[in-house]
Amino acid sequence: MTAATLLRDVFGFDAFRPGQEDIVNAVVAGQNTLAIMPTGGGKSLCFQLPALIREGVTVVISPLIALMRDQVRGLQEVGVEAGALTSGNTQEETDAVWAALEAGRLKLLYMAPERLSAGGVPQMLRRIGVSLIAVDEAHCVSQWGHDFRPDYLRIGELRRALDVPLAAFTATADAETQAEIVEKLFDGVAPSTFLRGFDRPNIHLAFAVKDQPRQQILAYAAARKGQSGIVYCGTRSKTEAIAAALREAGHVACHYHGGMEADDRRLVEGRFQREDGLIVVATVAFGMGIDKPDIRWVAHADLPKSIEAYYQEIGRAGRDGAPAETLTLFGPDDIRYRRQQIDESLAPPERRMADHGRLNALLGLCEALACRRQNLLAYFGEESDPCGHCDLCDKPAEVFDGTTPVRMALSAVLRTGETYGAGHLIEILLGSDLDRIRERGHDQLPTFGVGKDWSRREWQAIFRQMMGHDLVRPDPERHGGLRMTDRARPILRGEEDISLRADTIKAAKTGNRIKTLVSEEDAPLLSALKAKRRALAEAAGLPAYIIYNDSTLIEMAQKRPQTLDEMAKISGVGAKKLANYGDAFLSVIVGEVEKLHPVRRKMAGRSEADLYDQLLAVQADLARGSDGTGKPMTCTATMLAKVAQLRPADMGGLQRLLGERYAERFGAAFLDVLHQAS
Ligand code: ADP
Ligand code: ZN
User: Fold this and answer.
1) Would you say the pTM of this structure is higher than 0.90?
2) At residue 513, does pLDDT exceed 80?
3) How far is the CA of 44 from the centre of ligand 1 (A)?
């Protein structure tokens, strides 16, 4: 079968996502491949489909047991023979995997990297006929990355031992990591490389200046009540405090951080994966283990540490392609804290420089004057038009010429020896009559009191934006005193102007309208479909999205399929899921469901279904012959299905399928139908 047919029949998708088809073709052709695709881009399909097409077993190396188990269950749900060998298996599960392997039925074998260190694994894999190695989260071979897994270094050896093609997948884009993957997995020989765009158009991007951060998060969650979300916080204690506040406000919420017992963490991961509408308030420790496709929103209560971290964290939302929203809060304290973290780290100086650069890129995004996405994608080297789907596209920023106040501020910084923080500098600019100013003689400076045209609050925003534009940096050696950077020189010298945002100076008020995924008319149906999904998921002990994901339910609510055929055309409804759940969801939409012959049910949504229905109608007219007096006769459903599928071109063909007697009665009429259809 071709990839496109399998895509439709097994997975129920009409079309490949961007990039998938090229990758699938390369992997099917047996090339070594490296595919870099954003989270949610649909990487798994790029090795699952080839695994079905190619002879032999595909072994999938994946770093997290929970992820593997979910993928295996997802595959089994669509009727694919897959299994996992992990330390989390029960003996029965392991036995079942072996039985399927020995019987030559298994197509995908998931393995944890730790298994590779056990003796005899390559021999075992060769014996069971492994013909392809797929490596998920391939950036785990990178020693620089925070996801480094020493056992990933054995994958290169395994590839050499088995001498089969290897397909590596990751969402990490930077060039250093790519080079490390090529070196460690492919012995330095560049594989066919696919770099897919980094745009995640279904994710709405928004930033806001911290005003009353807890209130801002509560308001954001309130507008999205009942939808699964993550709130990322900078500290462990904050995760607990915000989770408690959310619970008090009537949400189902729990906290998660690296200081919790492993069991407690797993409990939260499990609940999040399974429950619909849970909010997890977490530090970045809540990360790679999360493979929930239907996270509807991600909020940052504190600024992430870099633009890459930001992209990865918001990227956990909306992997199913349905609308998702994000909000990132930031303030001057965040900027100071992140700088300090970098300066105090033990990394070598070049690394710290690079880290400052990555933080600057994120701050640039915070203080952006136009489309956030354009800014973000430009960082990843992609050009794009304004997206129409971010806060600045929704409502353009108000800007003003900030050159004068910025020069005043820089002058105050320099004249006080680059030793003071924003608080003290602002009092100088405002000309405040304070002891600590007089004692140091700062009331004698030419900048004393020159900034009275701006309020204290406005000055705070100006300093924050100056830090955001990396014009001044807190100097760790001087207890956070602000130092001027080289970037500021042209402005100070009068060679460059700078625009600042006026609107973030005023308190940022986020809209509080209730957000829904579908229009008002479709919302009740979507809720009913979700309730059905929850019931089925609970009965089967599966996460809800394994039954159908959110985008599939949204499409059902909008298109309202009336028949099983129409149901089969909904994206995400493949043959097996149609058979298992089609009726259940159809009955939510239309009430009673018409009972179809099992042979006809199998055809639902395919081109031959229509033909079958026409043949059935024609046959009914001829049940007693063309003059209505003959002996009653009808073809079986299987016979009709054969005619519809094989489409014989002439009477001879029909006779072979139906036999003389039936061909005589129905042949001419059936041929008419077939000719008209072709
Ligand atoms: P990744 O591993 O790249 O983060 P996944 O492989 O988990 O992403 O896929 C994300 C989601 O996209 C899944 O819910 C998957 O079912 C869905 N998906 C993948 N390919 C397609 C496609 N061609 N059409 C529609 N949905 C798809
Ligand atoms: Zn935009």
Assistant:
1) no
2) no
3) 7
